[in-house]
DNA sequence: GTAGTCCTTGACGTCGGCGTCAAGGCAAGG
DNA sequence: CCTTGCCTTGACGCCGACGTCAAGGACTAC
């Protein structure tokens, strides 16, 4: 199959496939006329890459999976190097999720505090005080 | 104070402050010699921006907070527009955290499955099968 | 005067993962 | 023959938040 069909069957674009090739993830045979030629194994590789990218893996992280498939293994994650990437990713995800949760907590607290002060200001409070402290201005 | 001191006191760089100015977030007065001049209010604005960026807000999202400070309010989140940004951000965070958690679950499941198959392969299993199905190759 | 440190504007570089355009080759149908 | 639709390589564009370099002006200290 040629690049257009591979792109369509993998749910991506020809540009993306050529980009993968430029990164050394995909290796195409060439027909006599110079066209790239792919087989079902290539389709599996591309699908593996796409799946991992959907998970938020960046391209370099998909390389072990692709290498694993190219080595003839039945799945991209049949190799130790792929499992190592999985594990590293899990750690990164846990860290990131934790950070986001603490940010969420902080932002939530800020919102609650700001809403409180706003409601304390409205029901008869003073106008918004529109002057700064002018004493200590130029350092 | 001049740009170098502001940068230092805000924990950032002069390049960053000029960038903020180019984005319209910061407005510097000019001394006779052309140097930018800042006051304590500017320092508060920069610190507000930095705090929000640490939370993962992008620059545009900090604009309402800066505008609020410039309008003379005591805090950057004393204005409704800022509260709206807080709320929107909370929603985005919840969505993102949820997505990451489901990814985490999926990756964890993949890892567990792959580890199982690997352990089923090792203790006397066959060599890694290094041939692909060749029948249905060229589509 | 001159060395050193600050400041100025302008412009190009970075990173990832492509999008998009340009200019042209190849194959098939009418 | 001509159009259409695929394919080729090459190269610039994009986004965000700056980093980094260049060339030169301003001010201070000695």
UniProtKB/TrEMBL annotation, chains A, B:
UniProt keywords, alphabetically: DNA-binding, Transcription, Transcription regulation
Source organism of this protein record: Streptomyces sp. NBC_00148
Protein's UniProt name: MerR family transcriptional regulator
One Pfam family linked to the record: MerR_1
PROSITE patterns for this protein: HTH_MERR_2 (PS50937)
HTH merR-type domain mapped to chain residues: 1-68
InterPro entries found in the cross-reference section: DNA-bd_dom_put_sf, MerR-type_HTH_dom, MerR_fam
Region Disordered, residue ranges: 116-139
Domain of life: Bacteria
GO molecular function ontology, one term from the record: DNA-binding transcription factor activity
